[in-house]
Amino acid sequence: MITIALDGPAASGKGTLARRLAAKYGLHHLDTGLTYRAVAKALLDKGLPLDDEVLAEREAGALDLAALDRKVLSVHGVGEAASRVAVMPGVRRALVEKQRAFASRPPGAILDGRDIGTVVCPDAPVKLYVTASAAVRAERRWKEIVSQGGEAEYAQILADVERRDARDIGRADSPLRPAEDAHLLDTSEMDIETAFQTACVYIDAALGH
Ligand code: C5P
Fold first, then answer.
1. Neighbouring-strand partners of residue 184
2. Which atom of ligand 1 is nearest to the CA of 164?
3. What is the atom index within ligand 1 of the atom nearest the CA of 120?
């Protein structure tokens, strides 16, 4: 059993990295951002407010991890809404419980998010913190949207990324920050392949390879 905790801000490349690592090591993978996104989307779909903790906690408690639809939840606006429900301790408590249950399934799992190394799986033997400058992350997100035929303005995306960072770093419950024992991977200059190879070195060392 091994647990890998992978944290970092929006559009840092952690999702791509997590999927590749999960495939290489044969681990379950959970993108915990999708769990917060699903709660926000459920509220939006029902026309309910995003700032009512009782309603949001109820959606979080009812969430089925097996039913998370990445395609539907990846929409840019849902990420913004997710960071609003993610400040609520009741929502976090309900989702963290499900995330921990997921992490305990053999043969092990990689979870990516904001608080995996600090709160969800503080005993994970491998913790990675992936980051990049806000400008680099906004550019990646912008290219992704445009390449899928969508329309986006770079300045708007950058402003969104910065607002989301501020909310994730500044919240009282489980703010975004690297765990003390996390390995830092800055992908501003490093490409995804180099980040992947570097992560593999840390994981292999933990596995005793
Ligand atoms: O990673 P992603 O952009 O999908 O996350 C959406 C939002 O969910 C984040 O901005 C953050 O507020 C919240 N989140 C969180 N804790 C996690 C994962 C995501 O608070 N472990």
1. 129
2. 10
3. 21
Q: How many other β-carbons are positioned within 10 Å of the β-carbon of residue 6? A: 29
User: Which residue owns the Cα nearest ligand 1 atom 14?
Assistant: 33
Q: Is 108 close to ligand 1, i.e. is its CB under 6 Å away? A: no
The Cα–Cα gap between 114 and 92 comes to 12
Task: Write the CA distances from 80 to 76, 141, 157, 168, 203, integer angstroms.
Answer: 7, 13, 11, 11, 32
- At which residue do the structure tokens 């043969």 appear? 107
78 Cβ below 6 A of ligand 1:
no
Q: What is the pLDDT of residues 44-83, one digit of tens each?
A: 999 999 999 999 999 999 999 999 999 999 887 899 899 9
For the entire predicted model, the pTM comes to 0.95
- pLDDT reported for residue 89: 97
DSSP per-residue letters across 44-112: HHTT--TT-HHHHHHHHHH--GGG--HHHHT-HHHHHHHHHHTT-HHHHHHHHHHHHHHHTSTTEEEEE
Outline which parts of the chain fall under CATH 3.40.50.300.
1-27+109-209
| CATH dotted code for 1-27+109-209 | 3.40.50.300
Tell me the C-alpha distance between 78 and 10, whole Å. Answer: 12
Q: What's the CA-to-centroid distance between 162 and ligand 1, angstroms?
A: 14
- CA nearest ligand 1 atom 9, residue: 83
Rounded to the nearest whole angstrom, what is the distance from the C-alpha of residue 139 to the centroid of ligand 1?
A: 19
Distance, first Cα to last Cα, the chain: 15
